[in-house]
Amino acid sequence: MAQVISIANFKxxxxxTTTAINLAAGLKAxxxxxxxxxxxxxxxxxxxxxxxxxxEASVYHVLHKEAFGEETKLEDVLVSASGLDLxxxxxxxxxxxxxxxxxxxxxQILDQLISSLKTYDFVFIDCPPSMGMLTINAxxxxxxxxxxxxxxxxxxxxxxxxxxxxxxxxxxxxxIELLGFLLTRYDHRKKMNRQVREExxxxxxxxxxxxxxxxxxxxxxxxxxxxxxxxxxxxxxxxAIDYASLTEEFLSKFNH
Amino acid sequence: MAQVISIANFKxxxxxTTTAINLAAGLKAxxxxxxxxxxxxxxxxxxxxxxxxxxEASVYHVLHKEAFGEETKLEDVLVSASGLDLxxxxxxxxxxxxxxxxxxxxxQILDQLISSLKTYDFVFIDCPPSMGMLTINAxxxxxxxxxxxxxxxxxxxxxxxxxxxxxxxxxxxxxIELLGFLLTRYDHRKKMNRQVREExxxxxxxxxxxxxxxxxxxxxxxxxxxxxxxxxxxxxxxxAIDYASLTEEFLSKFNH
Lengths: 256, 256
Ligand SMILES: Nc1ncnc2c1ncn2[C@@H]1O[C@H](COP(=O)(O)OP(=O)(O)OP(=O)(O)O)[C@@H](O)[C@H]1O
Ligand SMILES: Nc1ncnc2c1ncn2[C@@H]1O[C@H](COP(=O)(O)OP(=O)(O)OP(=O)(O)O)[C@@H](O)[C@H]1O
Ligand SMILES: [Mg+2]
Ligand SMILES: [Mg+2]
Hints:
The structure is a homodimer of 256-residue chains. With 256 residues, chain A is an alpha/beta fold. Chain A has a single domain, classed as Rossmann fold. Helices cover 41% and strands 14% of the residues of chain A. Chain A is built from 11 helices and 7 strands. In chain A, β3 (79-81) and β4 (84-87) form a beta hairpin. In chain A, α1 (16-29) crosses α11 (238-252). The longest helix of chain A is centred in the middle third of the chain and has 17 residues, at 153-169. Chain A is globular, with a radius of gyration of 17 Å. At the A-B interface, α2, α7 and α9 of A face α2, α4, α7 and α9 of B. Bound molecules: adenosine-5'-triphosphate (2 copies) and magnesium ion (2 copies). One magnesium ion binds next to α1 of chain B. One adenosine-5'-triphosphate sits between chains A (12-18, 40, 44, 129, 184-185, 214, 216-218, 220-221, 224) and B (11-13, 129, 150, 152, 154-155). Chains A, B: Residues 3-177 form the AAA domain.
């Protein structure tokens, strides 16, 4: 049975999509079978893996069929993109927020679909920057949640209210646990970055804050433009070094 | 009659809130009367002006009353925060997306409320990173939209789909116009930044891209932590210099 991990934070632009791609690629290099699911209507994860045309069959179509009782499964829309297994998103997903709002069991639609996935070690769900039906569906289907954030004032504020929402989600999914906070665009020379890191470690207990931090590195954006992960782009960049070290630390949390 | 400007982009973390505060502060220094409205449930604008306690009366309460036919106006919840006039947000706003979804005329609730504001030169609306009911209400009530973005691959992709949505909004608000794209965290030494800037200027016509770019400057985050604008924090930072130049360029678009 796969371990399902949501990569979520309703604060925008903190590196959710960048982390999903590069952690999945790092795990693949370690021989683990990983699946990426893009539930962001922006479809940034799908685009960052080189898929730019309008997708005919995406996670939207599967969610919609499941919500209205038609026979369907996630594997129906599975694609291989830059060597990674992906359930792609599409712009129709923006309509799903309102469409799903009145469906019976609206928070558990994705959970029904994910429980039938047997062949993966890890499933990562890339969430949009909001706490709507799509993020709720992701959290309800997850064993863990990973929260990327920039070590700055506003993102730190957002995390506390995100965790309050997570407590409410526990009513629908008792098993969800915080896997950890991942600091992105981190510069140890900046006092604010160091202060926020210390604050997180004191407030939430240091084993909930990944020791690996991701430094600012434009190569991460360059790789996304080319539609590939950072290791395929250039193994010698800070981005590749940091995400390789994150992969090690991630696996150590699962005793692999 | 005030000029109403939405600061919007459904891509997250691009500097919407940072721009709203510092442009409003820049205009105030030039003697203009400006109002800020925070329609992001994250309430980052409200927090960045030093308001951290749970707000009793926020934009949520006014939108809710207006939607259900009770007498109300935005001035009822107006506060002065760090010298700026603000209609604050609160976490209840997260529920507004679903609550407003079934209300008659759900896209025009904010527009009804804004048209009675007479005393301001400029009203800025800080939007959340999504294209839900709150952003739609902001765009329907606006004369202009300003789109901050980082000059990178994913944010550029997001802009094209944002503009498609804007075309749909025009059905509800014929007057809305693109005031311009504002490049944030810009570094002219990075090839990708220069390329994206050129692409924008070619694709959308160069008068739609602000000549002023905002450089990466941690002082902008420091100022938010202290709950003040960048000019009050330190006039000699790159952030203050860039936002002062943006203020000049902004005013030149309105022949002031
Ligand atoms: N460590 C980093 N260094 C430099 N750039 C980065 C880094 N991480 C992410 N980026 C860039 O910053 C932007 C935002 O990152 P990303 O899209 O992964 O964030 P997100 O949290 O998924 O955003 P959203 O909230 O919109 O979904 C992208 O253009 C990405 O290429
Ligand atoms: N030019 C800049 N240089 C350095 N840091 C910046 C700059 N602009 C914004 N920031 C910081 O980046 C983070 C994101 O900025 P901000 O919150 O303004 O973006 P946003 O688009 O409003 O985000 P959201 O989509 O979550 O509403 C904040 O921590 C802010 O302090
Ligand atoms: Mg993303
Ligand atoms: Mg914001």
